[in-house]
UniProtKB/TrEMBL annotation:
PANTHER family: BLR3430 PROTEIN (PTHR34075). Residues 60-123 form the ChsH2 C-terminal OB-fold domain. Residues 23-57 form the ChsH2 rubredoxin-like zinc ribbon domain. This is DUF35 domain-containing protein. InterPro entries: ChsH2_C, ChsH2_Znr, NA-bd_OB-fold, Thioester_dehydratase-like. It comes from Rhodococcus wratislaviensis NBRC 100605.
Amino acid sequence: MSAPAAVERLLPTVIDRASRGFFDEAAEGRLSVLTCTSCGRRIHLPRPRCVYCGATGPVWQPVARTGTVYAHTVVEHQVHPLFPVPYTVVVVDVDGEEAGVRMIGNLPGRVDVRAGTPVVCDFEDLGHDAHGNPVVLPVWRVDTEHAAAAPSGQDQ
Ligand SMILES: [Zn+2]
């Protein structure tokens, strides 16, 4: 009997009808959000039609790969073996977007962040899923280059 395979990452489903475009864009190195071709507003989270004007056929358009932390929490209680604790969950306001374009990030460990901490999005190549689709995950990290200028002490 062979030893069990090493614990690997839990891959996201990249072929879901609503979010496939997000992962296709990530595989090309772009952080993108659905955008209405009629009124131009962002549709986030993804939906088949614009929530503002009702138009169909929204398209994926790149947004800034930078943002600021809106809120965060540190998870100390492990609920899944592939998500070792502690880890820090952040809600990110994407730079240059109106309210409503917020993304969730997962940073390993207890990360020193607060509202306003600048973050930047990188892309982690996780290989391919069982069907051969590329799996590239946008991952947020503290933008250490700009973190010194961030506001401090507002949420402590
Ligand atoms: Zn619209």
